[in-house]
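input
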Amino acid sequence: MNKKKIITFFSLIFVTLCAIAGCSFLSPTIEQGNTPASLPNLKQENVQLTVSAAASLKEALGEITPLYSKAKSNVAIRNNFGSSGNLQQQIINGAPVDVFISAASKQMDELQKKDFIIADTRRDLLSNRLVLIVPADKGDAKELKDLSSANIERIAIGDPRSVPVGQYAEQALTKLELLQDVQSKFVLGNNVRQVLQFVESGNAQAGIVYVTDAKTSTKVKVVQVIDAKLHKPIVYPIAVIQKSTNQPSAKSYLEFLSSEPAKTIFEKYGFSTL
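output
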């Protein structure tokens, strides 16, 4: 083999080995913040988060969601509102949920016992108050004790089997020894917003909702803020779901909900931040 062929042979071997090893002299080093204009900018992968939240959070999260999307342009939020009990069952049945916000500890406790949430992401996010409402143009009741009057025939509360606001209402009425007298008058709502609608439409002469829901309507008026000592503390726990496929983004969103901009919005709608 002559000298020229030997040089060509070893040159081919050298180039092949460099191609495999990725020799630095074959392409210039690209430092962060110094990407050549000829190379496209790498974009973050787009993520969609599903947030299952108590119905009473609808307006507040409706305002917070675009604020978060502006800060995290690659993350889209899909809010799923309903009663905390129904949302809990959806998660147990395998619904693709990333973040859960309940209107009571009970639903979150049950999910945690069955390992459906990432326990160290759980925290109490908000608190609320219970109020007695009547239609804005009527005033047959002024306090809970009036609900036992013969003039009051229909009282709207959340279904205590799945709706936390109904559970709190039952606790308050039990403490005042009114439950047995008024139970036959109950019109049960599937969530707190349906309870509100029953009173707005006049299908119920009174109802028990959260103060945050009462503030969303001009068709009802608050006649009593119910003593918090009459029921368990109203807290809204939040956690990332164990089966979430977007856990880093879900944790980031959870942190954002505790930020000052988010707290300002929650407080605007009547929640107390924790």
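quick obs: The two ends are 83 Å apart (CA to CA).
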